[in-house]
Structure formats: C-alpha cells, structure tokens
Write a structure and sequence with these properties.
- The protein is α+β, with helices and mostly antiparallel strands.
- It is built from eight helices and seven strands.
- The strands form two sheets. A four-stranded antiparallel β-sheet has the order 4-5-6-7. Strands 1-2-3 form a three-stranded antiparallel β-sheet.
- A hairpin with a 2-residue loop joins strand 2 and strand 3.
- This is Tubulin polyglutamylase complex subunit 2.
- It comes from Austrofundulus limnaeus (Annual killifish).
- InterPro entries: Knr4/Smi1-like_dom, TPGS2.
C-alpha cells in the first residue's frame, strides 16, 4: 500500500511538473512571438471579423548554413537579415476573416528561410536551346538611370549585373526580392536593397534595408497586394476594399491611386438603392387607354387634313 501511494504521489508530481514546464514554454513562446511580430498578433485578434491568427514557430538558422549560402552565391548577407535568420529561420504569419460562418484566408506575411532564399534567375541548362528567350532579353535598353526630382534608384537588371534572391512569392501576385546591384563576376557583392517585381516584370523600389521592409510588411498586416501600393497603378479594387476595412490609418490618399476621373477610390455603394427593386408605375385604366387611343386617332386625322391642305 505504501509503495502504491508513493508511486501515485510521484506520478502526480511528475504530471504537475510537466504541465508547469509546458505552461512556461507557452509563456516564453508568446513573449518571443510578440517581440518578433512587434505585437501585431494582439492587434489582429482585436480587429472585427478576424479569426485564426497563426504564427509558425521556427528554429534559428545555423551559422554554417548562412556561411554556406554566402559562399555559394558570392554575396554577403546584410547584418539585419543575418540577425533575423539567427533568431528564426524564416517567418510565416497568416490570418483569416469570417464570412458566412466560414474562415476565408486573407493576410499572409512571409519571409523565406535560408534554404529557400534562391536566386530568381536560375543558371542556363546545358540542354536548353542556344537562342532560347530569357529574362535577360528585357535589358536591351538602358532605362535605369536615376532621373526626376525624387531620384528613384536605378532598377535591377536580369543579367549578370544584378544578383536577385526571392524573399516572398506574394501568393503569385509578384515577388519581393533581395537585390544586389552593380555586380562583377567573381567579386563578392555587399550592397543590397529590397525591390518588388510585379506580374508585368517591372521593378519597384520598396526599402533600402531589410529592417525597413520588415516593418512595412508588419504595418500592412500582410494584406493581399499591399506591395502594389508602391507602384504607379496601385492594387486591385478588391484589395483596396480590404485595405480600407482593416487599414484606415495607412489607407490614405497618399498611397491609393486615383481612378480615371481623378478621384480617389472610395466605396460609394448605397445598399438601400443598389438592392432595391424597380418601382412599377401605376397601370393606366382601360377608360384612359380608350380615351388616349381615340384622341390619338383624332389627332391623326387632323394631321392628315393639314397635310392634304398643304398639297392643295
């Protein structure tokens, strides 16, 4: 009996200790997630209609993997991106909205891991045709000089002058890239910027550092097509609707684009008018219709008489 009681007490103690350790780990993970996401998870959870906010926990990247990536690609990772990978090997935060009692995925914030930080331009295969078209053919004209009062940085090239690596695929709406410009074959590249490549293969400058881009991504909640707010044509009307709903402070007239009439895009839909049935007019009575027919016939006879008089 004493042995069984002692065993039960020891078992309860081990279970309680395990639960305490798990609770401690959960608290530490929540604190880590809040620091890494700059508290955006709590903000999203308090927004109306937002559900299923998920942050994927990842282990830190190993230093040897970072050194291997730099040696393989002949590039030096920026210090802030290196520190980010030493904290977490990639970043993924998603959230959904409730529509008709169903969770619809909406926001997505992604930073590829070191293993998926691949070059945008893959080396040419030995089995490819010698005159096969490639992205390098888009650099046939020199249009990358800085011009204008805003001094926009020179756009990257698709040939050996730039080394481009994909940070985020943007759900198929484009690509956010880590770009090294003015590269020389065999020379280690160090200077880098963050650029956005849209679906028309046009480049758009985002930020000069990874830290600035990371804050920009967090600030925009990872909404669909938020990168297009920094393009001349802006995001799609549907993306603007989501931005106006969940980003009232950021979705201002400075970032949104004007429509064809020169007015900013606003939701001018009036449900009381748009979904209201057409009002039917009063149906004329039979007497009124008979009178109208007789009156029109008399008018017709008068008109024929006048026409006959003119002929005479």
């Amino acid at each position: 009996m004493l042995k069984e009681e002692t065993y039960l007490i020891l078992l309860k103690y081990l279970v309680a200790k395990t639960q305490m350790e798990e609770a401690k780990e959960n608290i530490l993970f929540k604190g880590f997630a809040e620091r890494l996401t700059l508290g955006i998870t709590q903000i999203l959870e308090n927004l109306p209609g937002v559900a299923d906010v998920r942050f994927a926990e990842r282990e830190p990247a190993e230093k040897r993997n970072l050194l291997s990536w730099e040696q393989k690609n002949t590039c030096i990772l920026p210090e802030d991106l290196r520190d980010f990978y030493l904290t977490t090997d990639g970043f993924t935060l998603t959230w959904s909205v409730e529509l008709d009692n169903e969770c619809v995925p909406l926001g997505c914030m992604t930073i590829n891991s070191v293993g998926r930080l691949c070059p945008l331009l893959q080396p040419v295969s030995l089995f490819s045709l010698p005159n096969a078209p490639s992205l390098a053919d888009l650099d046939w004209e020199e249009s990358s000089r800085e011009s204008g009062p805003e001094r926009v940085p020179a756009a990257p090239h698709f040939d050996a002058r730039s080394r481009i690596f994909e940070l985020d695929s943007c759900g198929g709406n484009g690509k956010v890239c880590l770009v090294y410009k003015n590269c020389t074959p065999g020379v280690v590249a160090q200077q880098n910027e963050i650029w956005f490549l849209d679906r028309s293969l046009s480049w758009h400058f985002l930020t000069a550092t990874f830290t600035a881009y990371y804050r920009l991504m967090i600030t925009h909640f990872g909404l669909p097509e938020w990168q297009y707010a920094y393009t001349p044509y802006g995001p799609s009307p549907q993306a603007k609707q989501w931005a106006s709903l969940y980003q009232p402070l950021i979705f201002s007239s400075e970032l949104i684009q004007a429509d064809a009439a020169g007015e900013p895009f606003l939701n001018k839909l009036d449900p009381s008018k748009a979904f209201k049935g057409k009002a039917k007019g009063p149906t004329p009575s039979k007497k009124q219709s008979a009178q109208c027919s007789s009156g029109s016939a008399a008018r017709g006879q008068g008109n024929t008489g006048r026409l006959g008089g003119t002929k005479r």
